[in-house]
């Protein structure tokens, strides 16, 4: 189990590291409507609020959703696909997966509002 925890956290470290080659997809989901300062603040606040494990789940879902949106998928279809991927990865039902991801998304939205004030 120790090995899987290390493997699990590796994408988290790479994704949120200032040395990451790719922008943070959680921050990217915010940038379409808000400033970089607000979005970076919200990403940091969300990491704290969710904790490492749930933040990684949201980060992976955001990355998947962004990739599909860039390929032409609608926002709803991209998020549904991300939820299905999350369900498989975490071995929860699709309903539970979409509920979890939507809860993370609401927490992200709240963080954006707090950082914008």
Instruction: Give the proportion of residues in helices.
Output: over 70%
Radius of gyration: 14 Å
The secondary structure category is mainly alpha
Strand residues, percent: under 5%
Largest sheet, in brief, is: none
**Domains, number:** 1
> How many DSSP E strands?
0
Rounded to the nearest angstrom, the distance between the terminal CA atoms is 42 Å
Sequence stretches where pLDDT stays below 50 over 5 or more residues = 1-22
What's the helix count? Answer: 6
What's the helix-strand series? HHHHHH
Q: What characteristic shape results from the CA principal axes?
A: globular
User: Mean pLDDT, nearest integer?
Assistant: 82
Describe the structure.
It contains six helices and no strands. It has 117 residues and is mostly helical. It is globular. The model is unreliable at 1-22 (pLDDT under 50).
Summarize the structure.
This protein has six helices and no strands.
Characteristic terms for this protein:
mainly alpha; disordered N terminus; 117 residues; 0% strand; single chain; globular; 81% helix
List the helices and strands and how they pair.
Layout: H1 2-16, H2 25-31, H3 36-50, H4 52-70, H5 75-90, H6 94-116
Helix pairs in contact: 1-4, 2-3, 2-4, 3-4, 3-6, 4-5, 5-6
